[in-house]
Structures are given as structure tokens and as C-alpha cells.
Amino acid sequence: MEAHYLCAVLNSNIINENIKPLQPRGLFGERAVTRRPFLFPIPHFNNKNPNHTQLAELSKSCHDKLSAKHFRKANVAHLRREARGILADEIKRIDDLVVKIVNYETGP
User: Fold this and answer.
1) DSSP states along 13-50
2) Residues 3-28: b if buried by 16+ CB within 10 A, e if exposed
3) Is 72 inside a domain boundary?
4) Residue 44 resides in a domain
5) Are 42 and 6 in contact (CB under 8 A)?
6) How many C-beta atoms surround the C-beta of residue 94 within 10 A?
7) pLDDT digits 0-9 by tens, 15-25
8) pTM (2 decimals)?
9) pLDDT tens across 28-70, in order?
10) Ramachandran angles phi, psi of 68, nearest 5°
């Protein structure tokens, strides 16, 4: 559950948008994600916190949904875009929960 919780948080638009100003830009956009998401106040997983367990369940659901999917593109950026399109509703729900647990929408 903890791994799914962390996966949901790290794949949220909230974290993604907040790391962009911290990333160097290359020819094809932002690069070097590495440790930047961990610069933000991601609370430790607490299985008694309903927001945390909902995030974990959403992540598990997303993984299950994508494991049965055959992707059309081989490029990582295209794969990510296609996966995020398939999971748009789930990602919206994840974003709503991540805002609650990290206490901000944009900017650290």
C-alpha cells in the first residue's frame, strides 16, 4: 500500500507542475527529474489516514488498468501521454487528494 501511495503522489500533476521550475531545460523540454519530487513535503504513508489509503487504492487501480493495455507508441514521452490520457479521471481524483495531503496546489 505504501508503494502505491507514493506512486500516486509522485505521478500527480501537483508534484509534476511543481518540479518543472526546478528542472533544467533541454532541447525537448524539462529534464532530470531524479530527486526533485522529494524536495516537497510528501507525508509518510499512514494506513489510518483515509486520503493515504484512497491514493494507494487509486494507484493500484491505475496499475491494473494499464497492465492490460497495449500501447501504440514506443517513445517514453508518447507512452506517458497515452497512459495519462487513459487515466485522466483517476489522475484528477489523485490530484484532489494530493492537494489535501501536501497542503498546496502550486509552488512549494
Assistant:
1) HHHHHHHGGGSPEETTEE---TTGGGGS--PPP-TT-H
2) ebbbbbbbbbebbbebbeeeeeeeee
3) yes
4) yes
5) yes
6) 23
7) 777 676 665 56
8) 0.76
9) 555 556 666 667 778 899 999 999 999 999 999 999 999 888 7
10) -90, 0
